[in-house]
Amino acid sequence: MILKAKMSPLEQVHNIHTFQRLKERAEEICKKNGMQQPEIIIREAKRIHAEVAAYPHDFKIIVTSTLIDRLSFAEAEAVIAHEIGHRKNRHRGGIGAAAFQIAIAMNQFAAIDCIYLFSKNQNIFGTSEALALFLVTASITYFGSRRMHKREYEADLFAAKNTSKEAVISALDKISKINAQIDVQTILSFPQKLLAKIKGSIESKKLDEIASKASKLLEKSAQWLIGFYEKIYHLSFYSTHPSVSKRIKNLENAFSKQD
């Protein structure tokens, strides 16, 4: 176990207790499904994230400290179960994930080459070669993306069956909102520091009002930017995860069929 998060003594006791409970539940879920026992590693980070290490023989689940700090026990348990679901369903990265990333890079390169061709009437490849490369890599990324989406749906369903549907849905929704909030704060960190310096160097009520309005405008702009990026990302061929709304809808449909 690696515990890197910097915490006060009281928080540390609380989080170690939560960690031990999560570890026990992970072992119970694995035993129930005839799987080897996992090693859970905690890594310090601002965003909430979890993943299964891409090693064929070692079963390691890596989670960020914020997952334990900011989610309820039931929600954190659902996230751990989701990662166990990836392992149970043999969702491995390795060569497939590497090929998907290479296809994305080549597709973007081909797209830029095509744009350059149409704007400047010249490009690195020939016209037919550039278009062929774009179409082939677009097909690879499309089917690769759909395959990865399918894996997420399967892991969600496994987690819901081994914990509860409500916990998985709650975790998906909360993680999405918390990570979006963190992304907004990251984007705003520099302009807010700049505004604070300006306000500190020049004393003026009018300037304070302008700075306050500018700060609110920046926050709204950052929120819109993050939301817009999320929509474009999930609509693109490059997304490895379906949108939260689609994942929740898929869970609801799966359980309604069982009923």
Domain unit count: 3
Structural class: mainly alpha
Spatially, the strands of the biggest sheet line up as 1-3-2
Mean pLDDT: 77
Largest sheet composition: 3 strands, mixed
Q: In percent, how much strand structure appears in the residues?
A: 5-15%
> What is the share of helical residues?
over 70%
- Report how far the terminal alpha carbons are from each other: 40 Å
Protein architecture, described:
This protein has helices spanning 9-32, 65-70, 73-88, 94-120, 127-162, 165-201, 205-235, 244-258; strands at 39-43, 50-52, 60-64. The protein has three domains: 9-92, Metalloproteases ("zincins"), catalytic domain (Zincin-like); 94-146; 169-258. The model is unreliable at 1-14 (pLDDT under 50). α3 (73-88) packs across α5, α5 (127-162) packs across α8 (244-258) and α6 runs antiparallel to α8. Helices cover 74% and strands 5% of the residues. Strands 1-3-2 form a three-stranded mixed beta sheet. The two termini are 40 Å apart. With 259 residues, it is mainly α. The radius of gyration is 23 Å and the shape is globular.
